[in-house]
Design brief:
The structure holds two protein chains of two kinds. By secondary structure, chain A is α/β, with parallel strands linked by helices. Helix content of chain A is 46%, strand content 16%. In chain A, helix 9 packs across helix 10 and helix 10 runs parallel beside helix 12. Chain A is elongated and about 75 Å long. The relative contact order of chain B is 0.08. Classes of the chains: A alpha/beta, B alpha/beta. At the A-B interface, helix 1, helix 4, helix 8 and strand 9 of A face helix 2, helix 3 and helix 9 of B.
């Protein structure tokens, strides 16, 4: 089996790579938690890219039902078709459309399935998927067909911890918490995005960034995506590295709340 | 092999099940720990721990079982700077066999004590020696050293003698015991719903009855009808006792509060706090600061009677705090209730659905405390603040 070692565009910590490989070998879903902006969703893309596999994303919303991921039986369409004598009305299979999970099961080769933000859905949602994720199969009563995974997909699940997940579900997962990257790892991540960034600017920007994050008054701490946007702004405007820590230009890119900006102005230097 | 570790974890409050343990065995069998101790640590954590809030607990159990001494003292930044010498040691020039043997004989407690002494005495950088805290040396502390035994301070683990990773306890801050176990509460609270289709939403739900009706009326011509989705119309007013004797139940109450606010399917949720009993004012904040005060009468006249009211409190106070008129309401409007009990009765008269959740048991002795407990239990149906009590309470709230 191939192994995940990070990808060109994604820098993963040793622990994260370990967790991904453990999940793949044990064929268990990998549950990823972490602060917003630590690249939870990006991870699945990176794995798909690194292993050269197709990525299927199932975005969970508050209204998503477990059934939606398996299949949808379009009764109304069938009714309409039967009215006008459309062809193949007696073929129920024609009106059964597979959801994302079904798609992943029936794929011709192993795919990566990302169940994004599972905590957005109803409290019982994870429980409804236990069997399907465990056995990698489900039954469609309308057609009497059992959909079984041809190749067990690699399942990545992300959660923002908005809701707690049921124990029975957690027991079946491999869990990894993406810690906020430390300075060295962050420098590495930034270099992936800006291969020829001025070293001085990078050091200064990181210095300012981590100082801001450490301020206890800041409510919404800036994250990886924010520092990358900020650096883009700094580079684009050609800001002198000496000014970065002292003045923190383009602060609005890093902090999104008025009270955070005020807090920073009071606390800075 | 090391089943005892499973029990150490369970004793430490981690709900590790056999499924997870077997998964770990399978992983070890497949060599996923990569024959390294760090790998083993991460493997265990991945499979056995399912929340970052439990990482710290896991770390401590891990240390306890794998017999390590976590070094818990404070290390000054200055010392860490001296120790930050990432240059790799290539020769073993500082190796001293006699010192190694001496070091090996030291117990963990002795090393820790010595380290604490050194940290008080040390005033500058020392590397390659056998006494001070430094790098590349034979002393029992510092990093990149050659001592067969010791405590790593700063730097990177080099020869992997110290049981490193777990000792760092990086996840201490994540412990949020109060956010745990609210799931059961949430499930109980989910029962509190009354659906109604009379809400302003676009009609998106397939209406079977009307579709059949209209199709039949059109002589079999299929006519699809949709209706508005039904939505929970339950509005909740939560009033919580705060401070004093309630401090013992702070964790439980916070779990309830989190569950109520997280379950998020109520049409409206209002939370106010009071102390002991409801008087002329309630507060928006558990610290009961005057700045967050709201007149109780305002509450009564502005929140319609369709609100379901949940009181949370131990209902134990001095009798005069419940019935004594002089205590809290001195100069108010004469039309307002005179004492706590009268305020409670106003709530009962206004809202048909009120329950009182009590985190405490009825006191088994002492008439003094049971007096108010019984008096309040006569006014409102009272349930214990447990998962089961909450379920019963929800049923009561839904009764018409």
């Amino acid at each position: 089996m191939s192994e995940f070692r990070g990808s060109q565009n994604y820098v993963a910590s040793q622990e994260l790579m370990g967790a991904v490989n453990i999940a793949m070998v044990l064929q268990k879903p990998l549950l990823i938690k972490g602060e917003p902006g630590t690249g939870k969703t990006m991870l699945a893309e990176a794995i798909a890219q690194a292993l050269n596999k197709q990525l299927i994303i199932w975005n969970i919303k508050s209204t998503t039902k477990a059934q939606d991921g398996l299949y949808v039986y379009d009764v109304v369409q069938r009714l309409y078709d039967s009215q006008f004598g459309g062809e193949g009305v007696d073929d129920i299979a024609k009106y059964v459309r597979l959801g994302k999970l079904g798609e992943a099961f029936t794929a011709q080769e192993q795919v990566i399935l990302l169940i994004d933000e599972i905590d957005k859905a109803d409290l019982e949602f994870p429980n409804d998927l236990l069997w399907e994720l465990d056995r990698m199969e489900f039954y469609i009563p309308e057609t009497g067909e059992t959909v079984t995974a041809k190749h067990r997909p690699v399942v990545i699940i992300t959660s923002n911890a908005e809701k707690e997940l049921p124990d029975a579900f957690l027991r079946r997962c491999v869990f990894h918490y993406i810690d906020f990257p430390d300075k060295e790892l962050m420098a590495e991540i930034v270099r992936v995005h800006f291969p020829d960034l001025d070293e001085k600017l990078l050091t200064q920007a990181l210095e300012a960034f981590y100082r801001i994050r450490q301020l206890p008054q800041i409510k919404k701490k800036p994250s990886t995506s924010e520092i990358i946007d900020w650096l883009r702004a700094l580079v684009h405007e050609g800001v002198d590295p000496k000014r970065v820590v002292k003045e923190v230009p383009y602060l609005g890119v890093l902090l999104k709340k008025n009270e955070d900006m005020d807090a920073l102005r009071r606390a800075w230097r | 092999m090391f089943e005892e570790f499973l029990y150490t974890l369970r004793r430490g409050g981690l709900k590790v099940s056999l499924t997870e343990w077997m998964a770990l065995m399978e992983a070890l069998d497949k060599g996923l720990h990569r024959s390294s101790f760090t790998g083993f640590y991460h493997l265990c954590r991945c499979l056995l721990v399912k929340s970052e809030a439990d990482f710290d607990r896991f770390d401590r159990c891990f240390l306890q079982y794998f017999k390590d001494v976590p070094f818990e003292g404070e290390v000054s930044q200055e010392l860490l700077d001296w120790l930050n010498r990432p240059d790799v040691l290539t020769d073993y020039a500082n190796w001293d066999e006699e010192q190694a043997r001496l070091n090996e004989r030291l117990s963990e407690e002795e090393i820790e004590k010595m380290l604490q002494e050194r940290m008080r005495e040390q005033t500058e950088e020392h590397n390659g020696g056998n006494y001070w805290v430094g790098t590349h040396g034979m002393s029992t502390f510092g990093n990149s050293g050659l001592s067969p035994k010791g405590i790593r301070v700063g730097g990177q683990g080099m020869h992997r003698r110290a049981f490193r990773v777990a000792g760092e306890r990086r996840f201490r801050d994540f412990r949020g015991d109060n956010t745990l176990d609210t799931r059961q509460f949430q499930v109980a609270l989910k029962r509190l719903r009354q659906y109604s289709g009379l809400v302003d939403l676009p009609p998106t739900e397939f209406d079977v009855d009307s579709t059949i009706q209209d199709t039949a009326e059109h002589g079999g011509m299929l006519t699809v009808r949709y209706k508005r989705p039904r939505q929970n119309t339950v509005k909740v007013l939560l009033l919580m006792d705060s401070g004093g004797s309630m401090d013992y139940y702070a964790q439980l109450c916070s779990a309830l509060f989190q569950a109520v606010s997280k379950v998020g399917h109520f049409k409206d949720l209002k939370v106010y706090y009071f102390h002991n009993c409801v008087y002329g004012r309630v507060y928006t904040d558990p610290s009961l600061l005057p700045s967050g005060a709201v007149n109780t009468q305002w509450l009564l006249s502005n929140l319609s009677s369709e609100y379901k009211v949940i009181f949370v409190g131990d209902a134990q106070m001095a009798p005069y705090e419940l019935t004594g008129g002089w205590y809290y309401s001195r100069d108010r409007d004469p039309s307002l209730p005179k004492c706590g009990m009268d305020w409670l009765l106003r709530f009962r008269d206004k809202y048909p659905n009120v329950i009182w959740l009590n985190p405490s048991q009825r006191p088994s002795w002492g008439e003094y405390w049971t007096q108010t407990y019984d008096a309040i239990a006569q006014v409102f149906p009272m349930y214990p603040l447990t998962v089961q009590g909450l379920e019963e309470g929800m049923k009561k709230l839904l009764a018409r």
